Amino acid sequence: xxxxxxGFFETYSEERxxxxxxxxxxxxxxxxxxxxxxxxxxxxxxxxxxxxxxxxSAGSDTKDDSEFLxxxxxxxxxxxxxxxxxxVSNASISISNNDVTWRVNTNSDRFFTGKLYNxxxxxxxxxxxxWFNNQWLLNDFATNVPVNNGYSMFVQQNQAGVEEQIALAxxxxxxxLRIAPTTVxxxxxxxxxxxxxxxxxxxxxxxxxxxxxxxAAFLLQRILADKLDIDPTEIEIxxxxxxxxxxxxxxxxxxxxxxxxxxxxxxxxxxxxxxxANILSESINPSNPNSYLGKIHSQTxxxxxxxxxxxxxxxxxxxxxxxxxxxxLGLSMLRIMNDSNFVCGADGSFKFIELQNWLAFATELRNxxxxxxGFSHTAEIKGLPIIKFGxxxxxxxxxxxxxxxxxxxxxxxxxxEIKAExxxxxxxxxxxISIIDTFNLHRRPGWCYEKLVIR
Length: 455
Ligand SMILES: [Zn+2]
Ligand SMILES: [Zn+2]
Hints:
This protein is of the alpha+beta class. The protein folds into 4 domains: 1-43, no CATH class; 86-97 and 174-338, no CATH class; 110-172, no CATH class; 358-452, Endonuclease, Chain A (3-Layer(aba) Sandwich). The protein has 11 helices and 19 strands. Strands 3, 4, 7, 8, 9, 10, 11 and 12 form an 8-stranded mixed beta sheet that branches. Strands 5-6-13-15-14 form a 5-stranded antiparallel beta sheet, covered by helices on one side. Helix 2 crosses helix 7 and helix 4 (276-284) crosses helix 7 (327-338). The protein is elongated, with a radius of gyration of 26 Å. The model has no long low-confidence stretch (mean pLDDT 93). The structure holds zinc ion (2 copies). Residues 3, 5-6, 8, 29, 31-32, 34 line the site of one zinc ion.
């Protein structure tokens, strides 16, 4: 079973599934309780074929318009045992060599429908044909193939054939490294798994948080590849899963999962585990300006790269993540794991390589947004860009960083002072506060206008 609401993935034997079903375990996600069928998938049957067959004809040329696959299906890491968690700086890391990773092809959730058939295949050298019994065929391909150059196939129903819907899967045992922040300052909300009941701006901010985790994962993958002089594809990034902070706040965070591509492990993620403190501090302060990290930190890269480019995070193989990647958010995520006091600018301190231009960037985005949608009153509160609009400018739009927790302002700081001032303003004017984060504002201003501006 798989849950998109929390990243949980688990496999069961047929018997165990039946047993759990009678206990209603699968009515909702066993990990987070999600019931929305768009997010929570009840168990479906996985099959790992030993081999594949064709209709055994001479074949035909590939059609020009046939779809080609840009990316491989995601990897899921299944937790089998409990691994020791070690704390390095502000990161909780664990490595295990008895967990299993799965690559599952659900055919875009349409699955594969088929059953057992018998086929009779004729060949130019055997016009009587051979019988192949108990062949599992996709229903779409279980059709007779007329004679062509002496080849043909006749499909016969098989009494034992029971139609089934399956997903194709392959699994392997390999080393699995899990990485998550140990503590998260109360100024930040690092939950990328929002709830349906969350406010629109919180759901929106979770996109930037998701970007932070995935960008940090791809950064680590590339740092490791650079250090060990290997191909980045030797290290795989599995689906990120949910974790609950053990600090009695019940806040949700997420866990990055990296695995060796090679079955039984190649020692690469083990190297990251063994050298995590070094690699973390190196990613914040690179010692060699010509290394992969040095180039990311360079002035030239900072100036030309707004979110991600082929010099930092993009490669052809992670194409389906391109719109999500952002080296600044990835670096901030690593900085949180390196320093539990880092609050990502919520204290008004932006003296970090990935944050130093944030206020200017936010102001630029705010200006473009105001111009596109006809807002004429822009202002700054302690440097933070805002927009006032509506009758007597009673409403306020606040531009924020995607990692900031705007739901509970619990710490007295720069952000809290700004929020208090805005709260007071709208109490007097009778207006509303809209919150727009820079991750979404940069990528989809029209969507922000539609979904996040409260009028
Ligand atoms: Zn779940
Ligand atoms: Zn870049």
